Amino acid sequence: MTELSRILRLARNDFSYFFRTKWLMAILLSLHLSDMLVVALVYGRLMSFEYFKFFVPAVVIMGLFAAALDTGRRIWLAFREGVIHYYLSLPISIQGVVVAYLLAGGAAAVVYSTSLLLIALIVLPAHAILNTLILLPFLFILAMGLAGIAAALAALASTHGEYFFAYQQVVQLLLLTFSTVFYPMEYIEKYLPPFLTNLVAANPLSLAAEAMRQYTFAGHPVDPFFLLSILLTSIPLTVIGAVAYLGTLYMVQVKGKL
Amino acid sequence: MRLVWFDLKHELAPPVWILLEWFTFTIQLFIYGALISRLVTAPELPNYQQFYAVGFVVMMTFDVGSHTGRNFVEHAHEGRLPYLLSLPISRTKLFLSITLQGGVELALMLVVPLTLTLSLIGNLTVFSVTAAIASLFCLGFGVAGLMLGLSFIAFKSSDMYTAIVTGLSTVLIRFSTVLYPLIFLPPNYASVAMLSPLTYGSDLVRLILGFDARILLNPMYAVAVLVALAVSTLGLGMFLLQRLVEGVKSG
User: Fold this and answer.
1) Which of A41-45, A70-74, A86-90, B241-245 has the highest mean pLDDT?
2) Structural domain tally of chain A?
3) Least enclosed by CB within 10 Å: which of A37, A88, B135, B140?
């Protein structure tokens, strides 16, 4: 068996674990479907602005983010339960383990968010469904980047395991609140100072939500430079996560523990 | 008191989760709440940020109540509950210690968010502040009792308990007046919202704090529902705890 097939087997194992976790599916589906079908609809009645049209595409990206972030919980569990020692005993390199987890995290997030997208397409007419096919590979790279953040958090929390969920909550809160997922950029510019507005604009979640609104639902032609900006913000996150996780795995390999 | 302190000291050294809740509330109120408030144009809601602040405090109350129930389940599965049941204290005292711990946790979690909310709303009286706190505690105990009652499902499957509780929590929050007034909900959603205890809790607290009564539920119903919820679910929890037999495998 080649290294690539071992990586793919490990990735498949982690991918299926995500969808087999019943309580997680209950949380994610109830959260995102109620955001889409209740919060977006009712907020729309409070505003003169078409909030339903604005927020439903963003819920798909929120789903991608939440599912990708769960990679960190699975890595953290592998450290806590000792599964990582089993992985290190397998005929696969530590780089292979890192790649497998990032691939599984990215794939699980894309599959989960695609299911949300299908529901979004039922409730909100889309003008260019084909554009979604162009977006998908970029969303996959973004999901790997977000899984990278989660991996970095799990590596950071590897010696203080109980704080993993605290780190995760802080990152989730900051990335979502300081993005255009919930509110348009023109309102953010009026309220936040310029340096924070720039951070919001560069936030990969803002870029992905905007791409989903503009290209899939509004039907505007895809701008390759915009897609490039998603890549440019996602790839560094993937690299940082991979390096942090690799460093932790190396430490476990050398010392036998953290 | 020793039992209450035994559990609480783990949460207070260091108080990471409490600080995290305060931080979450601050960001949610001053970024999310403030920005959404600028988007809300309904004349019935001149200041959505204040409306949202009360809603978020109610959500936190709900979370702490759920946490008390979840703790009970985790303790049962980790073997701590059988140990507690074997101690020479009555079941009533054990139940009171679980309830008191939930109350102290709630007070600690809410001290900063509630202070920020009250100072944001302003123009308050001693009566309104006391009544709002009493309503929140009534809701918190009601939810904790509900989760304790539900936790008995967990003695068959903790996975099923977590799935039910998390799914139920999201639905209870979204289909309620925590985030928006009842008059803005579509009729079929509004009828579901009338079944959520959070609707009554959040509307009662808002009424006490001086929000426009025209967008809120009748306070008499709200008081009746909250008191009935707290008394019935806590009573059920106590009844079920009395029936647990120490040494019998529960999970």
Assistant:
1) A41-45
2) 1
3) A88
